[in-house]
Design goal:
Radius of gyration of chain B: 20 Å
Shape of chain B: elongated
Radius of gyration of chain A: 13 Å
CATH architecture of chain A: 2-Layer Sandwich
Bound molecules: adenosine-5'-triphosphate, magnesium ion
Low-confidence stretches of chain A: none
Distance between the termini of chain B: 33 Å
Strand content of chain A: 25-35%
Strand content of chain B: under 5%
Number of helices of chain B: 9
Largest sheet of chain A: 5 strands, mixed
Number of helices of chain A: 4
Oligomer: heterotrimer
Structural class of chain A: alpha/beta
CATH superfamily of chain A: STAS domain
Distance between the termini of chain A: 31 Å
Largest sheet of chain B: none
Number of strands of chain A: 5
Chains: A alpha/beta, B mainly alpha, C alpha/beta
Number of domains of chain A: 1
Structural class of chain B: mainly alpha
Order of helices and strands of chain A: EEHEHEHEH
Helix content of chain A: 40-55%
């Protein structure tokens, strides 16, 4: 799994490449923890390169969400494959996380 | 049977020492729980047994030595036998009855309830998960309990000698100290260490191989206690012989 | 590796097993495609749990082969088997929960033992899984403090803890009320449809079997006497199968033993 970061219109876009599984989710967790401690107000996670996410990956996202919720931080997820989206839906997380079909849509939503 | 026991013991000790060579670390919380189960809970019984035996030793020794007019020797008899033999032995007997049996019963119940199979299926090694914490706790707590027991036993010997046999309290202590060597103390502790290993492996072995429901658990527990006692005595005889000739 | 087609997550070939001189499984063969649910039916004591035990590698067959994801497992050593086991989850007939651990710790155990994830992540995963089986909020109870049906569901949550590709369930809905049965059935179907999970489910509950199964096999005295899609099974004229599905007391399933031999045996002097 690789994590790359770029900024577009002041919003950091994190592209994840590879599987988010038990082995890799600690890496994502460390990354998101630094983001949370820097009080990043808005964050866009680009899932285009993610084929698979397991429960530990979901838990990692939930933990980040919990930690920025208090300070009004916003999180958007973009370009989820149907299968990855299903993983969110099975545990009804699509109701909590904002899932967008692509990056422009997610950016637009984050800016409002 | 013996082969299976040897196999389990080897695997258990290999897993036990693995953390020293960069393996996954011990499960400290499980170890702590077992140390409390095995050790702390046995303390009162161990103390009482050693106390009573300290009294018995002193009185019987006094009976014999009085004929020789050498009651002073009571101190060295008590010190010597408690440190070398009685302390480790009686402590082990009590730990076998209390904790060796409960290890077998607990693991046996887990076996019967398919818990051990479930561990295997989850890819968790029951030897690492269940046997190692119990064995390690045994190996640590047996010497600890033995030292405690010996202390109480020595105190009991002193108490009865001073109060009932009219020996000089200070003289008794200096006599005791003069009588024992460091070797005596270490002999006892070495025995306790070995007993811990024997009782731990035997208890786990009989637990893990239980078949056939609650009845099987009962039978295995009995066998475990009997085997632990005989193996412990055999180890005692062996060690005593080895130490005597070295 | 073998010629097993990659579409099949599980294949059992000519499995035979005796306990002593009693034949428990005879020449059992079947295949399971990825993303499908295979139902194993059969009377009490016909060998269903024993069959599952062979597939999960707890028992070794006398002869025959078992392929999981194309890999033959009956001759694997402990280490090889441990690797294969990472890919599947198992719900035992009795639940097989660890009585000394809380419900939450039971579900967390496979996660914490098989990876380096932190305990706070494991805790969140536990919450997700318990919600799936309708047991949110029961984390802190011990197995002894919950009902039989709840234990089954905790067992299922634990089997799902590591997001397996292949799920084995030994009577997942035995002891559950009709509503909970339906919840578990829907969950099983959702997992297969949405996540591509494959499942082998042993069940006596014909409603639930026909509701979730995509393939079914019927075991009788350790043999497969019928297999096919639910449709094929429904239309199969085999009298034993018919009797089993309809739950008739009369039929070829040998209760007849009790009619003829029972009195004779009873009166026999040993
Ligand atoms: N370890 C064993 N040793 C000897 N016989 C066994 C053993 N395990 C199971 N059996 C026998 O194998 C047969 C099949 O048992 P199994 O548990 O597989 O039945 P089942 O189909 O799962 O029944 P149920 O629906 O009641 O759970 C039974 O007759 C049982 O007595
Ligand atoms: Mg069964």
């Amino acid at each position: 799994m690789q994590i790359t970061e770029r900024t577009e219109e002041t919003i950091p876009i994190i592209s994840i490449n590879g599987d988010i599984d038990l082995e890799n989710s600690p890496k994502l967790r460390d990354f998101l923890k630094t983001k949370a401690s820097q009080k990043t107000p808005r964050l866009l996670l680009d899932f285009a390169g993610v084929n698979y996410i397991d429960s530990s990956g979901l838990a990692t996202l939930i933990e980040y969400f919990q930690s920025v919720q208090g300070s009004g931080g916003k999180l958007a997820l973009a370009s989820l494959s149907p299968r990855v989206k299903n993983v969110f839906e099975i545990v009804r997380l699509e109701q909590i996380f904002s899932l967008y079909p692509d990056i422009p849509a997610a950016l637009a939503a984050l800016k409002t | 049977m013996l082969f299976a026991y040897a196999q389990l013991s080897l695997r258990a000790f290999a897993a036990l020492f693995a953390p020293l060579f960069g393996g996954k670390r011990w499960r400290l919380s499980a170890l702590f729980t077992q140390m409390v189960n095995i050790g702390v809970a046995s303390m009162p019984t161990v103390a009482m047994a050693n106390f009573l035996l300290g009294i018995v030793l002193a009185i019987q020794g006094a009976g014999q030595f009085q004929k020789l007019g050498a009651t002073d020797l009571v101190a060295s008899l008590v010190a010597f036998s408690i440190l070398r033999e009685i302390g480790p032995l009686i402590t082990a007997v009590i730990v076998i009855g209390r904790s060796g049996s409960s290890i077998t019963a607990e693991l046996g119940t887990m076996k019967v309830a398919e818990e051990i199979e479930a561990l295997n299926v989850m890819g968790i090694d029951p030897v690492k998960f269940l046997v190692v914490p119990r064995l390690l706790a045994m190996i640590i707590m047996m010497p600890v309990l033995t030292v405690l027991g010996e202390g109480v036993g020595l105190f009991a010997g002193w108490l009865i000698s001073v109060t009932s046999l009219h020996l000089n309290p200070i003289f008794y202590v200096t006599n005791s100290i003069a009588a024992v060597e460091q070797k005596d103390l270490f002999t006892g502790l070495l025995k306790a260490l070995v007993f811990g290993g024997v009782v731990g492996t035997v208890g786990c072995f009989y637990g893990i191989q239980v078949e056939g429901g609650a009845e099987g658990v009962g039978k295995a527990t009995t066998k475990s206690v009997v085997t632990s006692l005989t193996s412990m005595l055999a180890a005692d005889a062996l060690l005593t012989t080895l130490i005597y000739f070295t | 590796m073998s010629e097993t087609n990659d579409d099949y997550i599980l294949e059992v070939r000519n499995l035979c097993r005796k306990f002593g001189s009693r034949k428990i499984l005879t020449d059992v063969s079947f295949k399971l495609k990825r993303g499908e649910i295979l139902i194993i039916m059969g009377g009490s004591g016909c060998g269903k749990s024993t069959l599952l035990r062979h597939i999960i590698g707890s028992l070794k067959p006398d002869s025959g082969e078992i392929f999981i994801g194309g890999q033959e497992i009956t001759k694997l050593d402990d280490r090889g088997m441990a690797k294969v086991r990472k890919r599947f989850g198992m719900l035992f007939q009795t639940g097989a929960l660890f009585n000394s651990l809380t419900v939450g710790d039971n579900v967390a155990l496979p996660i914490l033992e098989s990876s380096d994830v932190s305990s706070s992540i494991a805790e969140l995963v536990v919450k997700l899984k318990l919600e799936l089986v309708g047991l949110t909020g029961f984390e802190h109870l011990k197995p002894a403090e919950i009902s039989g049906g709840m234990k089954k569901r905790v067992g299922l949550a634990r089997a799902l803890a590591l997001d397996p590709e292949l799920l084995f369930c030994d009577e997942p809905t035995a002891g559950l009320d009709p509503v909970m049965t339906s919840v578990i059935d829907t969950l099983t179907v959702d997992l297969t449809k949405k996540l591509g999970l494959s499942a082998v489910v042993v069940t006596h509950d014909m409603t639930s079997a026909f509701r979730i199964g995509t393939q079914m096999i019927m075991l009788f005295e350790g043999r497969v006497i019928a297999q096919g899609t639910p449709e094929e099974i429904r239309n199969n004229p085999d009298p034993i199968l018919r009797q089993f599905i309809n739950g008739d007391a009369d039929g070829p399933i040998p209760l007849k033993l009790s009619k003829d031999d029972y009195l004779k045996r009873l009166m026999q002097v040993e």
